[in-house]
Amino acid sequence: MPELPEVERARKLIHETCKGYKIKKVKSTEDKIVYTGGDDHETFAKEISGRTITGCERKGKTFWMTLSGKGRLPVMHFGMTGMIQLKGQEPTWYRRRPRENPKVWPPKFYKFVLELEPQSGSVGDEPVELAFLDGRRLGRLRLLPSPVTEHPPVSALGFDPVLNHPTFEEFEGLIAKKKGTVKGMIMDQAFSAGVGNWVADEVLYQARIHPSCPVNHLSAQNIKDLHHHLRAVPLRAVEVNADHRKFPEDWLFRWRWGKGKKQAKGKKKAEDAELQRSDEEGGEDIKPKGKDFLALPNSKPATIVYVEVSGRTTALVEELQKMPDGVEIKPKISKGGKGSQSKKRPKGGDSDDGSSGLSEEEEVTTPVKATTARQRDSASKKVKQEVKEERDVKPIRKARKSASTQDALSTARARSKPNGKAPAPTPTKRKAGTKSRKSSGKHSEVRLEDGARAASSDLSDLSSE
C-alpha cells in the first residue's frame, strides 16, 4: 500500500499544482465506506466548495488540504489503492502503473473531482481538475476541524520519521516499555506514523535486525541503528519523490518483488507507447541495471526469505539479520496441532490490517514466535507430562474396546445359529444419580434384528474366505 514516501509525493503534487486555486465545483460519488466520520459525499462536497486551497499537509499516511474561510478541512487516507490524479496526467501510482488511460476523465473509481480555477497569487494560470480515486474502497475521506492534528484519528498518530523524528534519548524512552516484535512496534502507527510493510522491512534490513526480534532483546547498538535507519530510509525515498527506480542499489526493496520473473507485457503502440506498459511493472525494471542479485558483504548472492511477522508478510536476509543469542524462532502451532506453513502467490496489494502486501512475489508464509530458554524448558516439561498421562490412559481404553468387541461377536454368533438365542448383554454400570433412557420397544427390536442379520452376513463372508 502507499506508505509515507508515496503519500508525501501526493501531498507535494497538490501543494505545488493547486495552491491558490479556488474550488469552483465538486463532483462526488456516493460511497458509504470511503466517506466516513458521519458525513456523506454531498456534505463533503458542499463544505469545501467555493473555498481556496492554501496548501496541503501530511502526518504519517494521512494528508489534508488547508482551505480558506471557515469550515472543516478535507482529510484523506489512501488505504491500499487510493490515488490522486490531475487531469491529463498519470495518477500517483504505487509501484505498479495503472492500466487506465489518463486521458479518460473523470477517471474510473473516482470518489471526488475538484474543478479548480486560478486566482491572483495561485501557482498556475490555467484551470486544473483534481481527482481522488480508489478502486478497492479501502481509502478514507472525512472532514475535520482545524488544526487537524488535534483531532482523532490524526491526533492518535505517533512521531513522523521525516517531519518530527525524536532524538535518540527520546527514542530510547519510547521503546523502553514496548513489548512484542521490533517490526510490530515500528509498524504501529501510534508509535511511528507512516511506516508500513516495505519501509519496515527496509529499515530492519539496513539496521541488520531480525524482524521477529523481541523489543526487549535489542542491544544498545541495535537501538542506535534502528533510530538512524528509521529516519534515513523514508527520508531517502522522499528525496527521490518515491520513485522506486531511483532507490539505492543495495536496498532490499529493489530485489523483493517478483524475484525478477515479472517482465513487461503487451505490445506498445507508436502513438501511445507509454500507456501500453505493463501494469505489472516493478519486476525487471526495479533491479539495478547490470546487477543480477542482492549481494552480501562477501559479494556472494543473498537469499531473501519470506516469513510472517506480526501478521505481515516479511522479507529478510537471514545471513545478515540474525536473532540475538538465547532467542530462537519456532513455527507457530495452529489449534489443529500442525505447524502452519504455506506457499502462496497473493494477488492483492499491501495493507496495515494483516493482509498480504507482496503482490508479485512468490512468498513462503511461516508464522514465527520468539522464545527464551526458560519458556522452552517449561513447554518441554508440559509436553512430557501430557505424554505420560496419555500412556496411563491407553491401557484402560484398550481394555474397554476389547470387551466391547467380544460382546458384539458373541451376539452375532448366537444369532447366526438356528433357533439361537443371544446371551444377555453385559450390564453396564452407571454412575449414581443417573437415569437410563427408555426407548420404544418396537424400534429397539428392529435395530437388534437388523444388527443380527448384518453380523450373520459378516460371519458367513469370513467363513467362505
Automatic annotation (TrEMBL):
Basic and acidic residues: bias regions: 269-292, 374-395, 442-452
Q: Where is the composition biased (Low complexity)?
A: 454-465
Q: Which residues form the Formamidopyrimidine-DNA glycosylase catalytic domain?
A: 2-139
What are the annotated GO cellular component locations? nucleus
Q: Which residues form a coiled coil?
A: none
PANTHER family, from UniProt? FORMAMIDOPYRIMIDINE-DNA GLYCOSYLASE
**According to its UniProt record, which reaction does this protein catalyse?**
Hydrolysis of DNA containing ring-opened 7-methylguanine residues, releasing 2,6-diamino-4-hydroxy-5-(N-methyl)formamidopyrimidine
Composition-biased stretches, type Basic residues, lie in 428-441
Q: Please identify the protein, giving its name as recorded.
A: Formamidopyrimidine-DNA glycosylase
Q: Which UniProt keywords apply?
A: DNA damage, DNA repair, DNA-binding, Glycosidase, Hydrolase, Lyase, Multifunctional enzyme
User: Does the keyword Ligase belong to this entry?
Assistant: no
Q: Which GO terms describe its molecular function?
A: damaged DNA binding; DNA-(apurinic or apyrimidinic site) endonuclease activity; lyase activity; oxidized purine nucleobase lesion DNA N-glycosylase activity; zinc ion binding
Q: Name one Pfam family in it.
A: Fapy_DNA_glyco
Region ranges (Disordered): 263-294, 327-465
The domain of life for this entry's organism is Eukaryota
GO process terms (BP): base-excision repair
Task: Identify its protein family.
Answer: Belongs to the FPG family.
Q: Has UniProt tagged this entry with the keyword Hydrolase?
A: yes
Enumerate the transmembrane spans: none
